[in-house]
Design brief:
The structure holds two protein chains of two kinds.
Chain A (H helix, E strand, L loop, with lengths): L3 H24 L8 H22 L12 H17 L2 H19 L1
Chain B lengths: L1 H15 L2 H50 L4 H10 L3 H12 L4 H12 L1 H9 L10 H6 L3 H7 L11 H29 L9 H17 L4 H17 L4 H15 L8
Helix pairs in contact in B: 1-2, 2-3, 2-4, 2-9, 3-9, 4-5, 8-9, 11-12
The chains are: A mainly alpha, B mainly alpha.
């Protein structure tokens, strides 16, 4: 059901995301050159943030039961190995997800 | 617009009495322009094929999840059109169906998408030449589009780059919308146990991580990102580790001295 709360929430997400994307262009508009520190961050941060998001996606893993970590670990390793080997995003993503879904729905 | 200009040119060239050479010249110009444009579009399309596969799959997962939470198909389309941020939209399904407060929604948006600020920083130079297309290019600057726009494109003439960037952004946006709608439609037609489908996002980030790792010899930022986030997760728990991680990563990267390549 789509109520006004849902609509506001979507508007906030849309505007917030756009604001974050426009922010550097607003801040550094008209300036001849970007500060070296900012440029350095621009080069290095994407790698660090993607690494952070990988960990973020696995945040709900827990080690109290095998079902808490084994499915994600196995599927994650599968994705990594497949991607190193075949370099095909679709293949890696779909295989990993299907294996993960099968593992948590039927095995663990 | 091309036709009258071309005719005018022919007319002028007739008057000038050297019809053939000038008309030929005009013909070559128009044809050359078309070919160049088509080539740009084709080249952009080829570059976006890996993203197409990823976005169709990822969007599909989002559509199914949203549908499974009881939302209509058109909402999947609207969200993918106006928000256009993969990770956030996945998290949004839980936030919307759980009735999270608008403050939570705002904070989550900020945290999950703060990285986009830095994508913009590395695009400041490239987007200096893109004219009136720039606002759309900035709006559409997702993780994957960013990774495509980062690539050096020496074979594309400077005058064509704004079209090339625009095509990449537009194609990616369309894949994402198409994937979400397909997923939502499938979810409403086929009864489907979607438990675990959110792993699409994990899988996608792992593949991006590996691709970024391959594209550079400087692995310290990636390692810092992994280690710092894992430590913060262990210290602060899964509810509030993201802010701490981002602060620490920012600080360490500021202090880090880049390796300067030799030669």
């Amino acid at each position: 059901m789509v109520d006004s709360h849902t609509a506001y929430a979507i508007a906030i997400m849309a505007l917030g995301t756009a604001l974050l994307r426009f922010l550097p262009f607003i801040i550094f508009k008209g300036k001849g050159s970007t500060p070296p520190l900012v440029e350095k961050l621009g080069r290095m941060l994407p790698c660090a943030v993607i690494a952070m998001l990988v960990v973020y996606c696995l945040k709900d893993m827990h080690f109290t039961t095998t079902a808490g970590y084994l499915p994600a670990l196995m599927a994650g390793l599968l994705v990594a190995l497949l991607h190193v080997w075949k370099k095909n995003t679709l293949l890696s993503v779909i295989s990993g997800t299907v294996v993960y879904m099968l593992l948590i729905q039927f095995v663990f | 617009m091309k036709e009258p200009a071309h005719r005018q040119f022919l007319f002028l060239s007739r008057q000038a009495g050297n019809e053939k050479s000038l008309a030929d010249y005009a013909g070559i110009c128009t044809l050359g322009g078309h070919r160049r444009m088509n080539r740009t579009v084709r080249q952009a399309f080829v570059e976006t094929i890996p993203v197409m596969t990823g976005y169709l799959a990822l969007g599909f997962g989002f559509g199914i999840m949203l549908k499974a939470s009881g939302y209509p198909v058109w909402l999947a389309m609207v969200m993918s059109m106006v928000i256009y941020a993969g990770a956030l939209q996945y998290i949004a399904v839980g936030l919307l169906s759980g009735g999270a407060s608008l403050l939570t929604v705002g904070l989550t948006t900020f945290l999950v998408n703060a990285r986009h600020v830095f994508y913009g920083i590395s695009m400041l130079d490239k987007f200096k030449i893109t004219g009136k297309r720039t606002p759309y290019l900035i709006f559409a600057l997702t993780d994957e589009t960013y990774s495509l726009l980062c690539r050096e494109t020496p074979d594309i003439p400077l005058t064509e780059r704004k079209n090339y960037y625009f095509c990449i952004c537009l194609f990616d946006h369309c894949y994402w919308i198409a994937g979400s709608v397909l997923g939502a439609v499938t979810g409403s037609l086929v009864p489907f146990n979607s438990q675990g489908i959110d792993f699409v996002l994990t899988a996608l980030f792992i593949t991006i991580f590996i691709e970024q790792w391959r594209s550079t010899t400087q692995h310290a930022p990636a390692i810092i990102g992994l280690v710092v986030t894992a430590i913060c997760l262990a210290l602060f728990g899964s509810e509030s580790f993201l802010i701490a991680s981002m602060g620490m990563i920012l600080l360490l990267l500021c202090l880090y001295r880049e390796e300067v390549p030799h030669g």
